[in-house]
Amino acid sequence: MQYEPVIGLEVHLQLATKTKAFCGCSTEFGKRPNSQACPVCLGLPGALPKLNREAFRYAIKVALALDCGIQKLIKFDRKNYYYPDLPKNFQISQYDKPIAYNGSVMIASGGIAKKIRVKRVHLEEDAGKLIHDTPGDYSFVDYNRTGIPLLEIVTEPDLNSPDEAYRYLTNLKSILQYLDVSSCDMEKGTLRCDANISVRPKGVSALGAKVELKNMNSFKNVRDGLEYEVSRQIEAVSAGEKISQETRLWDAEKGVTAPMRSKEEAHDYRYFPEPDLVPFVESGALVDEIKKTIPELPEARMRRFKAEYGLSDYDAGVMISDKLIADYFEACVKSYNKAKTVANWIMGDIMAQLKERDVGIAGLGLPPEGLSGLLKLIDDGTISGKIAKGVLVEMVETKKAAAEIVKEKSLAQVSDSGRIEEMVKAVVEKEAKSVSDYRNGKASAFTFLVGQVMKEAKGKANPAVVNQVLKKMLGA
Ligand code: ADP
Ligand code: MG
Ligand code: ZN
Questions:
Q1: In sequence order, what are the residues at sequence separation of 6 or more whose Cβ sits closer than 8 angstroms to the Cβ of residue 414?
Q2: pTM of the prediction?
Q3: Most buried by CB count within 10 Å: which residue of 4, 67, 435, 449?
Q4: Which residue from 351, 343, 346 is spatially nearest to 312, judged by alpha carbons?
Q5: Is 200 buried (19+), middle (13-18) or exposed (0-12) by CB count in 10 A?
Q6: Are the C-beta atoms of 350 and 395 separated by less than 8 Å?
Q7: How far apart are CA 270 and CA 77, in angstroms?
Q8: All domains of the chain, ordered by start, with CATH?
Q9: How many A from CA of 244 to the centre of ligand 1?
Q10: What's phi and psi for 119, nearest 5 deg?
């Protein structure tokens, strides 16, 4: 029997508001534990929550970008559970009326576009942080995170492979980054993902019992965890076992999932309307206003990059995946109009620098005009492409302009044919054997001779001129 995986993802996104979802406490990261908590986010008697306008706007922005329907009547609910990271013993969330519903995210799968339906997007508050790895026989709790606004984005079970899940997450993150509503950093926990997975015989439409996977702190982890779980479940059902509905944790080190708890049902949470937040009707004016602030999104930008700059699918895909890279690319092309060359440099030497230094494009300190300045020096023959690679690293390190570095280190190549002729002459005299090889039809001897001249010139001779002079001299 052939089985197919069925996957649905729940993403929690920490919204980058200055203050918490329902109180004025700061959301700044890394402050002294419990220094950013007040009666409201601690749930002290008599304290009343008030919705953060910015968080609400961010939620609408995301809803619009994901093509969702937007709820007319906005209301919140209490989700009740007892856990030390939740001082109120309930979380303010949205149950039956999520802010947004029925949206979609497109992914590429097997070369074709596939629509992944977004079931719901709702606003809720984060819990505190428990710290267990402390010396001694106790744990700590930090309530600074309690009440920070989260957006939960839930898909329908439309994903049919771990790779599709990976692509969905990549595209979703890219859209969210374009919207500038969150730092979207899985390692820092501002973007978290739980994956629901079941398997079923191919051709059957009923869903199998699902397992919820947690504890994955990168998209790669999500993919790896799902791969493992797909094999585990297929093996189990093939052996006639039943999959039990449960939550499992991914152990990235061991490369396995292990059971954490059997999954609670929704009624365990005893949801009921939050009585301290009055439901309100969104008139539509705010939605119209927010619509205007939505930038060109990745898919549209990709289409434009292909049409306007003639980039390939692959190149355009890399250029748009990060908004700041896309902005950088366009700024470079403004001052240096060979788009393909710019894209190649960004994908090659620039991205290598970002990786090596572990920074984003903004942190590299190489302005777009810096890169175009360098590329112009290659075009006008001042330096070779090879020398330029070294100059780029130097530019990043010293923050100097390309021309300045070329001048200081006298890297400018020799294009003066008189001087090149001298060097070619010397090589031709010294390498008599290669010269006769070339004259007897051995083409590779020519390449060797060019190499010898370049060596003589310490890499700084203009290769085009060297070729020309050498051809002439050998022909004579
Ligand atoms: P729960 O109430 O357990 O949180 P939901 O219906 O809200 O369940 O779904 C949570 C996520 O699980 C959604 O992304 C949904 O698409 C996915 N999902 C639901 N049923 C299945 C299933 N049988 N197999 C895989 N994913 C599923
Ligand atoms: Mg759920
Ligand atoms: Zn507070």
A1: 420, 457, 460, 461, 462, 465
A2: 0.84
A3: 449
A4: 343
A5: middle
A6: no
A7: 10
A8: 3-289 (no CATH), 298-408 (no CATH), 417-475 (1.10.10.410)
A9: 14
A10: -75, -50
Atom 6 in ligand 1: residue holding the nearest Cα: 156
CB 9 within 8 A of CB 193: yes
Return mean pLDDT, the chain: 94
Question: Residue 379: helix, strand or coil by DSSP?
Answer: helix
Question: Which residue carries 């953060």 as its tokens?
Answer: 52
Q: How far is the CA of 144 from the centre of ligand 3 (A)?
A: 8
Identify the sign of the CA torsion 419, 420, 421, 422.
positive
For residues 347, 353, 358, 364, the Cα torsion angle rounded to the nearest 10 degrees is -100
Q: Which of 1-5, 78-82, 121-125, 457-461 has the lowest mean pLDDT?
A: 457-461
Give me ligand 1 centre to Cα 10, in Å: 9
Contact partners, residue 102, CB within 8 Å, separation at least 6: 68, 69, 117, 118, 119
Q: How far apart are CA 51 and CA 28, in angstroms?
A: 18
Ligand 1 binding pocket mutation candidate from 117, 199, 210 (most atoms within 8 A of CB): 210
Taking the centre of ligand 2 as the mean of its atom positions, its distance from the CA of residue 314, in whole angstroms, is: 35
**How far is it, in rounded angstroms, from Cα 443 to Cα 448?**
9
Measured by CA distance, the residue closest to atom 15 of ligand 1 is 8
CB-based contact 254:56 (threshold 8 Å) = no
Give the residue among 107, 117, 187, 193 at the shortest CA–CA distance from 150: 193
C-alpha distance across the termini of the chain, in Å: 76
- Nearest Cα neighbor of 454 from 446, 462, 442 is 462
The CA distance from 357 to 392, in Å, is 14
Task: Please tell me the total number of residues recorded for the chain in this structure.
Answer: 476
- Cα 13 from Cα 176, distance rounded (Å): 9
Q: With CA atoms as reference, report the closest residue to 143 among 8, 58, 42, 271.
A: 42
Asked if residue 153 has its Cβ within 6 Å of ligand 1, the reply is no
In the beta sheet, which residues pair with residue 201? Answer: 3
What is the average per-residue pLDDT within 372-395? 93
Ligand approaching nearest to the C-alpha of 49: 3
- In short, whether 154's Cβ falls inside 6 Å of ligand 1 is yes
Query: Residue 229 is which amino acid?
Result: E
Among all bound ligands, the one having the nearest atom to the CA of 154 is 1
188 phi, psi to nearest 5 deg:
-90, -5
The edge-to-edge listing of strands for the beta sheet with 272-273 is 90-93, 77-80, 272-273
pLDDT in tens, 49-58: 999 999 999 9
Tell me the ligand closest to 207's alpha carbon.
1
Residue type present at position 123: L
pLDDT tens profile 217-233? 899 999 999 999 999 99
